[in-house]
Amino acid sequence: MPDVSAASESSPDRHAYARFTRRVQGVLIDAIIFMFILADALAIAVFFGSDNIARVVGFTVAATWLFYEPLLVSMTGGTIGHYLCNLRVVDDRGGNVNFVKAIARVVIKSALGWYSFIGMAMTSRHQAVHDLLTNSTVQIRDLTKAQPHHFIGRRGGITAPGMPSMQRIAVIAVYLFGCFVLFTLAMAALAPVGLVSRQCIDGDSCSATELVIVSLLWVAWAGLSIWAAVLGWRGQLWGARVRR
């Protein structure tokens, strides 16, 4: 059995908290499931060619997206992605989170997107923002089936010594603003060269190719922002380095 204490840095907490990479794998599995559901729904709507059926299918897909995670998390402790990745959402009071909390987790996670996971680098129990605000954690479901790189113990010191936390947060904010400026400039530069139309940038309509380009750019922006926030909090960026 994997040794949880090997992952713990300085705390007697024996829980095995899921690492970011393991949680991302679960999210990707759920996303793939929804892609198949959406593709099937579109195929059904096109096959029947009926507006009424299309509305019913659309409502069904929307309801599935809304209740998929809350129902499974509150009833079984996790989605299909969680289960396949050996993860479980645990309420701080023990057991599964209730349905209301499960809905709140989905709403917060959807609103913040990948930025919610920045909290994992700043909290002792590796909680994303949607975990923190709903008093929950994501842990390994069965330690006997886990690899050492799947989990980590409770983090000891959160704030690196030698630098005021408010200063570090201010520096992180500057880097995040810089990432946003780069994203905006990159979007503005795509139109003149014909890669993305002005209509797509304004949010009116995008072709399939434009959607791919914009999505890749958005992923790059989100990834760079998360990287800057994590390194900044750890005191590894210029302007936010820990004083020795």
Describe this structure in words.
The protein has 9 helices and 4 strands. The model is unreliable at 5-11 (pLDDT under 50). The chain is 57% helix and 6% strand. The chain is flat. The protein folds into 2 domains: 4-152, no CATH class; 165-233, no CATH class. With 244 residues, the protein is mainly alpha-helical. Strands 1-4 form a two-stranded antiparallel ribbon. It has a two-stranded antiparallel ribbon with strand order 2-3. The protein has helices at residues 4-7, 20-48, 51-76, 80-84, 99-112, 129-132, 165-190, 198-201, 208-233, and strands spanning 17-18, 87-91, 136-140, 151-152.
SSE arrangement:
Blueprint: H1 4-7, E1 17-18, H2 20-48, H3 51-76, H4 80-84, E2 87-91, H5 99-112, H6 129-132, E3 136-140, E4 151-152, H7 165-190, H8 198-201, H9 208-233
Helix pairs in contact: 2-3, 3-5, 7-9
In order across it, which strands form the biggest sheet?
A: 1-4
Query: If helices are DSSP runs of H or I spanning 4 or more residues, what is the number of helices?
Result: 9
Distance between the termini: 39 Å
* Beta-strand residue fraction: 5-15%
Domain module tally: 2
Oligomer: single chain
Main beta sheet strand tally, sense and closure: 2 strands, antiparallel
Rounded radius of gyration (Å): 21 Å
